[in-house]
Amino acid sequence: MSVNATPSIVRRGLADRVLRRGPLEAAATTIIAAGVVMLMQPFSLTLYSWSLATTLFGTVMFTIVSKVRE
Amino acid sequence: MNELSASSRITYRAVMVRPGVARRIRGLSDRTLAWLFITPTIVLLLAINIFPLLWTIYLSFTNYRANRANVPTIWLGADWYQSILTDPDIWAAMQVTAHFVIWTVVIETVLGFGLAYLIDKKFRGHGMWTTIILLPMMLSPAVVGNFWTFLYQPQIGLFNYVVAFFTGRAASSFQMLGDVTLSPWAIVIVDAWMWTPYVMLICLAGLRSIPDYIYEAAEVDRASKWRQFWSITLPMALPFIMLAVLFRGIENFKMFDMVNLLTGGGPGSTTEVASITLKRAAFESWRTGYSSAFAIILFVTVFGLANIYVKALNKVKSR
Predict the structure, then answer these.
(1) ipTM
(2) Which of A29, A36, A58 lies nearest to residue B311, judging by beta carbons?
(3) What domain range is B242 assigned to?
(4) Looking at residue B184, which CATH number applies to its domain?
(5) Set of chain A residues whose Cβ sits within 8 Å of the Cβ of B301
(6) Nearest residue in chain A measured CA to CA from B246
(7) What are the helix (H) ranges across chain B?
(8) Which residue of B has its CA nearest to A63?
(9) Which tens digits make up the pLDDT trace of A3-58?
């Protein structure tokens, strides 16, 4: 009688773990939220100036990563 | 015999007419038929949504003025964007918007969830109370803006008399809409009054979606009501609360009608939210290119928030 010693859990690389829809969508969502906060915060005009670029980047990223595999 | 031939002739004619139309329809594939049905909608969408959006994006890079349409249009690149994103006045308008959005969302969420929690207890007459609570939501913002203007009148307004009754201050000693400090709160109060019922409805849907057996299991484990609230009710209703927060956040970010009717952005620019600034640039200063760039900045923000909203919605749907 032989015992199968092959582990049932397949080890995934870092790229496999990170380049999935869930974490990427979470990252895009965080960037969008940061952009909105930057737009409306009362502390720094520089942050306000970069808010559109940040929100736009997050939105484009979200649109792209929502097509990535689960 | 003649009768028979006449009837067969009629039948023959009918058979001759029908296959022509039927064959033409039958010849179309399901895919073509689907396209045939959705084409009017797509054309309408392109005409009233997509084309104006693309046209606004184009205008935002030019010096176009709607009141001087004959003047040659000059391409300015990203000059308007740079101007808006370094303008302290626009930044101030964004902070006014932030004050309005944050406070309305916080108040509406806390009150809305509280009301939903009470209504969910199904006490006697809860149906009638639900209807009464929902009434403000059913009114038009124009009507609400107008009658709250009367309620806020320092001489005859009911609001001032209620505040005077509870605080002891003279009713005519303060103006909710005319005071620099009070006017931002005046619009927050009206929006919270109108839209708390909406948040309540969403939260109520969340609370009603929690199965009873979870509470029964918690009772068996002798969990206190406080523990049940923090460990069952709140976590399970959280996606719905998030949905309400995002929805009200997006709506209030582009709020125009109620603020315009109540204060018109005044006194000074203390209640000048982004949409009021946009309207002034577009239809009072007639800086169409500039206002287009501003509109695109607001659009990108709302579009970004809408993405988060859709993600939250999918999370709720997957439950």
Answers:
(1) 0.80
(2) A29
(3) 81-317
(4) 1.10.3720.10
(5) 35-36, 39, 55
(6) A33
(7) 2-26, 30-45, 51-59, 79-84, 88-119, 126-138, 141-151, 158-167, 183-208, 212-220, 225-228, 234-253, 257-262, 274-283, 288-317
(8) B307
(9) 566 555 656 666 666 677 888 888 999 999 999 999 999 999 999 999 999 999 99
